[in-house]
Amino acid sequence: MKRVSIVGGGIIGLCSAYYLAKEGYEVTVFDQSAMDDGCSYGNAGMIVPSHIIPLAQPGMIAQGMKWMFDSQSPFYVKPRLNSDLIKWGLQFYKHANANHVEKAMPALRDLSLLSKELYQDFAKENDSFFYEEKGLLMLYKTDKVADEMFHEAKEAERLGLEVDYLTRAEVAGLEKGTKTDVLGGIHYKSDAHLYPQKFMKFLKKELQRLKVEIHLNTTVQDFIFDKNSIVKIVTDKGSFATDEVVLAAGAWSPTLAKKLNISISILPGKGYSFTLKDKDHKPSIPTILCEGKVAVTPMNNDIRFGGTMEITHTGDTKINQNRLQGIVNSINEFYPEMEVGMPKVEETWFGFRPCTPSGMPIITRDKKVVNLTFATGHAMMGLSLAPATGKIITEIISGKKISVDTKMFQL
Ligand SMILES: Cc1cc2nc3c(=O)[nH]c(=O)nc-3n(C[C@H](O)[C@H](O)[C@H](O)COP(=O)(O)OP(=O)(O)OC[C@H]3O[C@@H](n4cnc5c(N)ncnc54)[C@H](O)[C@@H]3O)c2cc1C
Predict the structure, then answer these.
(1) Do residues 194 and 300 lie in contact, with contact meaning Cβ atoms separated by under 8 Å?
(2) Cα(327)–Cα(188) distance, integer angstroms
(3) At what angle do helices 11-22 and 196-209 cross, to 10 degrees?
(4) Which residue is closest in CA terms to ligand 1's atom 14?
(5) One Pfam family from the UniProt entry (predicted)?
(6) How far does the centroid of ligand 1 lie from the alpha carbon of residue 285, in Å?
(7) Is 44 near ligand 1, meaning CB less than 6 Å away?
(8) Closest CA to ligand 1's atom 12
(9) If DSSP codes are grouped into helix, strand and coil, which group holds residue 52?
């Protein structure tokens, strides 16, 4: 059977490994880290068919410019005179229009719904990762944001998703875990959530069972070619022969692509989270606090808060206290009973979302390198879209009929 090498052992790499191994491929995963704390671990764990509108959308440039001047805002682009950032910004500008959003929405919906079905299959096998289907509450405090949320919800309904529009009292009736101070909310029934660290643990066990080889702390440095095929993966621990390569290196994907003479535009969108254990009066339903773009997820007895999107570089590992304060302020404004203080630096997690300027993931065969497939660029939805991505990667490599239309997921 063919050997497939996967570069990157985040959720996208591991889901790809899972479906490839099940199909009978001999799979090896390489990761530069110990695979225990990257972007796929401390995220908000939301599975979000509701998120059909990509980040690149009309109005985002104007809103982003306003947020740039507020140190506690949820979105920020670290200004640098850097060609990758300029290219990314120009591409973002090109995609932030109604035409792109109209094409992106059904593509994201179909990929998301497929992923949710695959999560349901995983959850039938094992419930160690606390998969639950409680939907997603979008809570807002202002008329302006209510209008934006209504518009998005109407689009979601047009695409067949089930949505409830809630008054302040109806929000209180649904969210019984804690008091909420809001104008109203929107409940997307389609969404689900899980505990990311526990899901990654489950996946790793499954891969062990399927005899997938995992090389931890092994950095992929280069590729050796025979004509237009990669024949060897070069790492800091030696070289490995291969028949197929999947590039799933998250925010680091452009550096590896450069080694292959391929240019891909992905920048890290740094975000933070912190998790409170055994907190009283905590929310029971996954929620986004819309004005501050803060994600709130109950995970078994824990509660996780996540947010901010700082478009930066992978060397930027500093925890920005102002932005963290922005998250904490939102929590206390929306949940008056919670009384959440600033987490210590050592209790604060950060991760780099792999953000494409179009807001669409890249799930495709390369046009020149015949045995190279990309699985990257999932930005804020990598957990949500991972099983479907893994399944599609397997279908691409094995030449099978592809489950969803991948036109929007090209390089
Ligand atoms: C605060 C926050 C909240 C989020 N909430 C959600 C959510 O609720 N739902 C959702 O769907 N998504 C969410 N996300 C996004 C999600 O976490 C990411 O999209 C996802 O984890 C990306 O997975 P990945 O496998 O592509 O990348 P990663 O998890 O970053 O994995 C890439 C791997 O490649 C490895 N690598 C890189 N270069 C090399 C090399 N040269 N050699 C070997 N290995 C290499 C890295 O070590 C890394 O382990 C959130 C993100 C953040 C930051």
Answers:
(1) no
(2) 22
(3) 30
(4) 380
(5) DAO
(6) 24
(7) yes
(8) 381
(9) coil
Q: Tell me whether strands 229-235 and 238-241 are parallel, antiparallel or unpaired.
A: antiparallel
- Name the residue ranges covered by the structural domains of the chain: 3-40+198-264+359-409, 52-95+130-191+266-355
CB of 39 closer than 6 angstroms to any ligand 1 atom: yes
11 C-beta closer than 6 A to ligand 1:
yes
Cα 39 to ligand 1 centre (Å): 4
Is the shortest distance between the CB of 10 and ligand 1 below 6 Å?
yes
Architecture of 52-95+130-191+266-355 per CATH?
Answer: 2-Layer Sandwich (3.30)
CATH number of 3-40+198-264+359-409: 3.50.50.60
Per-position pLDDT tens, the chain of length 411? 899 999 999 999 999 999 999 999 999 999 999 999 999 999 999 999 999 988 878 777 777 777 777 777 778 887 788 889 889 989 999 998 999 999 999 999 999 999 999 999 999 989 899 999 999 999 999 999 999 999 999 999 999 999 999 999 999 999 999 999 999 999 999 999 999 999 999 999 999 999 999 999 999 999 999 999 999 999 999 999 999 999 999 999 999 999 999 999 999 999 999 999 989 999 999 999 999 999 999 999 999 999 999 999 999 999 999 999 999 999 999 999 999 999 999 999 999 999 999 999 999 999 999 999 999 999 999 999 999 999 999 999 999 999 999 999 999
Asked if residues 375 and 16 have their Cβ atoms less than 8 Å apart, the reply is: yes
Q: Ligand 1 pocket check: which of 76, 348, 380, 409 to mutate, most ligand atoms within 8 Å of Cβ?
A: 380
Q: Nearest C-alpha to atom 51 of ligand 1 is from which residue? A: 43
Contact 107, 360 (CB under 8 A): yes
Pocket test for ligand 1, best of 199, 353, 384 (most atoms within 8 A of CB): 353
